[in-house]
Amino acid sequence: MMIFSRATFFLAASVFVGVVRSQSCPSNDNGQCDFEPTNPHSCGPDYKCGYSNICLAEAAGYDIDTDCCQAPQPSGCPMLFDPQLCGSKQCPFDNMCIAELAGYTASQCSPPPPECPTGGKDCSGEPNNPFTCGINNCDYRTICDAESAGFDTRADCCQDTRSNTACGMIIEPVSCGPPGGKQCGYDNQCLADAAGYNSKQCCKAVPDGIACNAMYEPVECGNIPCVYSNQCEADAAGWSQFECCKQPNMDGCSMEYSPLACSSASCVYDNECIARNAGFDPASCVPLASASTASAEPAADEPAADEPAADEPADPTNAGAGKSATAASVGAVLFAAALA
């Protein structure tokens, strides 16, 4: 079984290609960066948080020089995996085409060292607990072996499955890990379960050999939700366009909160401008009650609209329906109970 390391999914985690869970990234966008030129950067631990310009990255609290890597401008590159490390910060890219889109030249990049490091510590007495680490997918039998080789198992490694795990050979790849954190790939959910994950922690991954371009038009699919760089990759992972929503684009839009639900996937956007940026005609969308409307006091002799009568069961599909969603999520209203 091939276990993908953190670096395998790195490009998906910022603004490149692949699959990754929805990000939990800091933001302080109050419209102050609306007129800044596009200059994408990826920041934070393992450069997993993407920002469309320097202003937004700095507003989120990052230092461009120490915390961020230049990300590629939207364009088309093949899905070839020929990893490169570029610049003094050794920023990783899937191939030289993507590195060049980020502004690097071939003289500033080089392939990662092909060998796997080893440590001098005797770990022969440690129990079997396999990990795969680093951009070269280096296998280590124990935590002791991985740490002796210089890896941080929490940041640099993926838990491997036990050798006696009884899983089929079916290839239905998944990517697992915390939102905004390290992502680990497994050939199927059974193997992911054997490594300690469960289906609520994993997303369907883009299979190897899929020919999608590197255009960054992110979509969110399913209830988790799972985030893909574009609809082509979401389709390759097994989703349909009716199960996915384009992530919101705030360009030229106000912070007004007048939420709309658009398309059969119930994509929720904060206002008509953002819905229009996502490609929807606001006239085809359904207005939702805003937080202020939902919190209005009912008349003294009337029950609250979102509370059941005393002899009726609560409706779980209403959970969180009055909450603001600055970033549109897949079925944020209809699936709120499932996400709780």
Helix and strand topology:
Elements: H1 10-13, E1 19-21, E2 41-43, E3 49-51, H2 54-59, H3 64-67, E4 68-70, E5 84-86, E6 91-93, H4 96-101, E7 109-110, E8 131-133, E9 138-140, H5 143-148, H6 153-156, E10 157-159, E11 174-176, E12 184-186, H7 189-194, E13 202-204, E14 219-221, E15 226-228, H8 231-236, E16 244-246, E17 260-262, E18 267-269, H9 272-277, E19 286-287, H10 291-294, H11 336-339
Antiparallel strand pairs: 1-15, 2-3, 2-4, 5-6, 5-7, 8-9, 8-10, 11-12, 11-13, 14-15, 14-16, 17-18, 17-19
Structure description:
With 340 residues, the protein is α+β, with helices and mostly antiparallel strands. Helix content is 16%, strand content 16%. The chain is built from eleven helices and 19 strands. The strands form six sheets. A four-stranded antiparallel beta sheet has the order 1-15-14-16. The radius of gyration is 22 Å and the shape is globular. The two termini are 33 Å apart.
